[in-house]
Amino acid sequence: MQRATKNIGVANRRSADAADDETARRGFATSLTRALIESRQRYKDLVELSSEFAWETDASGRFVFVSPAGALGHEAEELVGRCPREFRTEGDAAVFAAAEPQDEVELGLRRADGSDARVLVTAAPVFAADGAWCGARGIWRDVTDERARERELALARSRERLVTHLLRTMRDEVDPEKALAAALEATTHALAADGAIALHSDGGIAARWGVEPDAEWIAAASVAAGAAGEFDGSIADRTVLGDATRHRGRANGAVLFWREPGAGGFARRSAACSPTSPGNSARRSPPWGRKRACWPCPAPTR
Predict the structure, then answer these.
(1) If one looks up domain 51-142 in CATH, what number appears?
(2) Where do the H-state alpha helices sit in the chain?
(3) Helix, strand or coil for residue 138?
(4) Which residue would you say has higher pLDDT here, 157 or 56?
(5) Exposed, middle or buried, 284 (CB in 10 Å: 0-12/13-18/19+)?
(6) What is the arithmetic mean of pLDDT over 30-44?
(7) With left for phi above 0 and alpha for psi between -120 and 50, is residue 6 left, alpha or beta?
(8) When comparing pLDDT for 70 and 291, which is higher?
(9) pLDDT one-digit tens code per residue, 58-101
(10) Closest residue by Cα to residue 223 from 211, 236, 207, 212
(11) Exposed/middle/buried for 243, CB within 10 Å: 0-12, 13-18, 19+?
């Protein structure tokens, strides 16, 4: 009898212990589920609040997840299912299919309105449970405004160096013709041009530098610059940048810069340099200034 009673007591304790274990397991499962939900909600909130754009691609390289706010002027729904290469204008879009971590790869991407954006992309590969690569995920940061500020700062520094060089040249060179030639050379380098010429109002050549076209072409270019006041176009397959020069408010000639066929055009920027009028001191910065390499640094490869 005592043994039976003891066995019943042991069985009851085991049953109670089992019930406690089940309750503990259920409590743990509930806590884990709640923690996972809170974690996902926390991640979702951070993604929505972040100024950086979060994305994920699948094995085919198409977006399967993007930040709810969208990017590049597109709604999130417009981006899902599309390939990042559709938007690339510059750089290697392979970062969106990264097989290994990538940090701040700079790309040019096209916005919905057709304008260009600059972004820094950070990516990490995504692997399936069996270890097979199945896509990538990451973020990008829009640095368009930052790059624009950097260009403007570089432009201002380039302009300052060029103007300083021109002033020193004109101060140190006694011969006016040599001073003009040196200033013309400096400006030509700054614009990455292939040649330049400064003309008197009667068509006479005041100074020249670099590749020299024939007299007929020079005459046509000078007429175009003189008629327009400023000129930015093409003459006989050469890209030409020119403007009339003035002294005391009166036109007294023209200055022309050009690039040979196939060398590309002059990128339009704010005023970067000032040409000198034939026989006169530096005039005000013209509205057609272009940002190229700074003088005396070498011109960039085109």
Answers:
(1) 3.30.450.20
(2) 2-49, 76-79, 144-172, 176-191, 215-228
(3) strand
(4) 56
(5) exposed
(6) 58
(7) alpha
(8) 70
(9) 999 999 999 888 889 999 999 999 999 999 999 989 999 999 99
(10) 236
(11) buried
Using DSSP bridges, classify how beta strands 238-247 and 250-259 pair: parallel, antiparallel or unpaired. antiparallel
Instruction: Please state which CATH number belongs to domain 147-259.
Output: 3.30.450.40
Tell me, what's the pLDDT at 3?
Answer: 58
To the question of pTM greater than 0.85 for the whole model, the response is no
**Residue 217 and residue 255: Cα distance in Å, rounded?**
14
What pLDDT, on a 0 to 100 scale, did the predictor assign at position 98? Answer: 94
Residue 248, φ and ψ in degrees, nearest 5: 55, 40
Q: Output the CA–CA distances (angstroms, integers) from residue 5 to 9, 14, 15, 180, in the order listed.
A: 6, 14, 15, 119
Q: Which of 55, 97, 63 is nearest to 80 (CA)?
A: 63
pLDDT, tens digit (0-9, with 9 covering 90-100), for 221-252: 777 766 556 778 888 888 888 888 888 888 78
- The total of other beta-carbon atoms located within 10 Å of residue 92's CB is 13
Q: What Å distances lie between residue 285 and 36, 126, 243, 273, CA to CA? A: 63, 54, 11, 6
3-state secondary structure of 122: strand
Say if residues 225 and 257 touch (Cβ distance below 8 Å): no
Distance between start and end Cα atoms, the chain? 104
Return the residue matching tokens 């405004």: 145
| 53-58 and 133-142 beta bridge pairing | antiparallel
Question: For the chain, which residues make up each domain, given as ranges?
Answer: 1-49, 51-142, 147-259
Question: What Å distances lie between residue 108 and 93, 142, 210, CA to CA?
Answer: 9, 10, 34
The two domains 51-142 and 147-259 share their CATH topology (first three levels equal): yes
